[in-house]
Structures are given as C-alpha cells and as structure tokens.
Design brief:
The chain has one domain: 3-Layer(aba) Sandwich (Aminopeptidase), CATH 3.40.630.10. Strands 1, 2, 3, 4, 5, 6, 7, 8 and 9 form a nine-stranded mixed sheet that branches. By secondary structure, the protein is of the alpha/beta class. It has helices at about 60-70, 80-95, 150-170, 190-200, 220-225, 235-245, 265-270, 300-315, 320-330, and strands spanning about 100, 110-115, 115-125, 135-140, 175-185, 210-215, 225-230, 255, 275-280. Helix content is about 30%, strand content about 15%. The longest helix has 21 residues, at about 150-170.
C-alpha cells in the first residue's frame, strides 16, 4: 500500500452530485457470454462458472491465488510490466467466471496511466434486486516490483476481494448492488482509485455509492495481533455489522474506528462516502523484499476476508436508509 500511517484526522469531504437515472438493479445474477468461433458448439458460448468451485474462504484456495500473484514470475506487479498484465488477466478471468457484470471501458478494464505506465482498474458488479444503492469493495493489485513481490501489499487484499466476490455470488443477489474493483497504480499515489472516483463507470454512479470497503495488507495480523477497521465509527451501519459478526472469529482482534489519511478510501471519503479500511500492520517487511508469500498469516487473513464478506452482505441487505446516512455523516469524524 502507499505508505500509510494511522492518523486521527478528518479527511476533507465534498458533497455528492444529484442521483442519475439508471442505477444497476436487476432481478437475477448476470450471465456472461464468451467470445467464441461462429461455428462452435452451443455449450462453448457459456464461460465455465467458478461460482461453486469451492468454499469462498477455503484457506488452500486463497494460498494458491496469493502464491501466484506474489510469485517471482510476476515480480511485484509494477504498472506496465508483464507481471502487471498477468495479474490483471488473472483477476479479470476470475471476475468473468464468477459471473460479475463488466463495468469498465473495455470489458472489466478501466485503463489508466500510472506515472507514465499503462495499467488498468478491473471493475465488475452484481446487480441489486430492489435498491438503487451500491456497495463498493476495493483492493489495489499493484506493488513496486524489482524483486519486491508484495505478498501482503497487496496480493492479500486481492485474494480477499476475490473470496468476497465468490461469497456474494453463492449468496445470490442482495438488495443493493455490490461492485468489486481491483485498482492499479496505488503505489504511485492512489492513482487507480482516484481515477475511478473522477471517472466512475456509467453503471456505477458515485452518487449511488453508500459504502466503500477497502482491503489492503490483510495478511500480517500476527505482527501486532490485530486488524484495523478504520472508518467504523460508533453509530455507523458498518460498525453495527462488524460488532455483530466479529465474535464468529475469536482469534482475530478487530480495532474499530480511527481515520487513515492514506489508502484507496481517500477519494471516496472526499465524496462523503462512508468507508471501512481493513489493514494489518507490517513494520518489518512493508515495501521490503521480505514481503513474500511464506510470511502471510493465512488463518487470520481468511478470517479477515470472511469478516469483510459478512460486512458486505450485511450492508447490502440492510433495510436502513444508507443513502440518508451517507448524506448525514459522510465518512465520519475522528472519535
């Protein structure tokens, strides 16, 4: 992640613009069709589904995905590199087989330039059934490269995001739409998330986003025996759901509240969107070559992913008026 220090400071916020006419609402999950030859057999037109290829929070599956993203072959996924392209292809294929609806400029891809290098955000969503609200879940996919493999920062967040996406698809459509965004260019200054906020996809207007959930460095719980849930302040809907669900994970300590003034939630907070930023400290190997897959605290990473998934689905089905709550509180104050 971009160097992140805990700070109890209010991030400057601005007011949202009027709501658009066509939010993403649907009665059923999307069906994804692949590009195939014109003379192909009928079954070839359907992308094989991976929705039910296992339990969403299976530790071995998350280990395997993280090992791939943090492999020496991908060399840290710096923007514009072969590793970056390979990571984006991996994420896009998982989005595709999970049946997410593409919302980028080119399929799932929302191209951008990160300090002169071509990269992209990957954007997909599950439509809601009865609400125009949107929950956004994000994790940056890039790292600094040059033998800095970025296992915790932020392959851990990406595999957690993919696990949550699978849990959502197995759950079935919720009241609110749920969008999943893998951001590029975070290490260069939050470039991917700021680009998304400045140029939201037509299907995901920012005015309808009622909650952002950020997953960044969630694989080092053992370093200080805890995970921060920045932005989860008393009285917020997110806090209610976190408190209700964290008892399911007795070995995972959750620190509620406080603002982090750096991270992909910053652009959302400036638009008065409430956020929860899951983050575990990693003082030893943050932006060092020792940030490798063998150091990840996998059991707690799985717990954090599952807790985030509980939060996402809880908020997506919450009957409270989250749009009114966003208008009232914005992203909150330091408490």
């Amino acid at each position: 992640m971009h160097r992140s220090l805990v700070a109890l400071l209010l991030v400057a916020c601005s007011r949202p613009s009027p709501p658009p006419a066509s939010p993403p609402v649907a009665d059923s999950a999307p069906h994804v069709v692949a590009a195939v030859p014109i003379d192909a057999a009928p079954d070839a037109f359907v992308t094989p589904s991976c929705v039910d290829d296992g339990k969403p929070y299976d530790e071995q599956a998350l280990r395997a995905r993280l090992a791939h993203l943090a492999s020496p072959e991908l060399d840290g996924r710096a923007p514009g590199t072969d590793g970056d392209r390979a990571a984006r292809a991996f994420i896009a294929e998982r989005f595709r087989c999970l049946g997410l609806t593409p919302a980028g400029d080119d399929g799932f891809a929302q191209p951008l330039t990160a300090n002169g290098a071509a990269t992209a955000n990957l954007v997909g969503y599950v439509p809601g059934t009865s609400s125009t609200d949107i929950i956004v879940v994000g994790a940056h996919h890039d790292h600094v490269g040059d033998k800095h493999l970025g296992a915790n920062d932020n392959a851990s967040g990406v595999v957690a995001l993919l696990a949550v996406a699978q849990a959502v698809r197995q759950h079935g459509p919720a009241r609110r739409a749920i969008a999943f965004v893998a951001f590029g260019g975070e290490e260069g200054g939050l470039l991917g998330s700021l680009h998304f906020v400045a140029h939201p996809p037509a299907a995901l207007p920012l005015e309808r986003v009622v909650q952002y959930i950020n997953l960044d460095m969630v694989g080092s719980h053992k370093a200080q025996h805890g995970v921060a849930a920045f932005g989860a302040f008393p009285g917020f809907a997110s806090t209610k759901h976190l408190v209700a669900n964290q008892r399911k994970y007795p070995r995972t300590n959750v620190w509620l509240g406080g603002h982090s003034v750096r991270g992909d939630q910053v652009g959302f907070c400036k638009q008065r969107i409430p956020y929860v930023f899951f983050w575990t400290p990693d003082d030893r190997c943050y932006h060092e070559t020792c940030d490798t897959a063998d150091r990840i605290d996998y059991p707690r990473m799985v717990d954090i992913a599952a807790l985030a998934g509980d939060l996402v689905l809880g908020l997506a089905d919450d009957t409270a008026d989250l749009a009114a709550a966003r208008a009232r509180t914005g992203c909150g104050r330091s408490m």
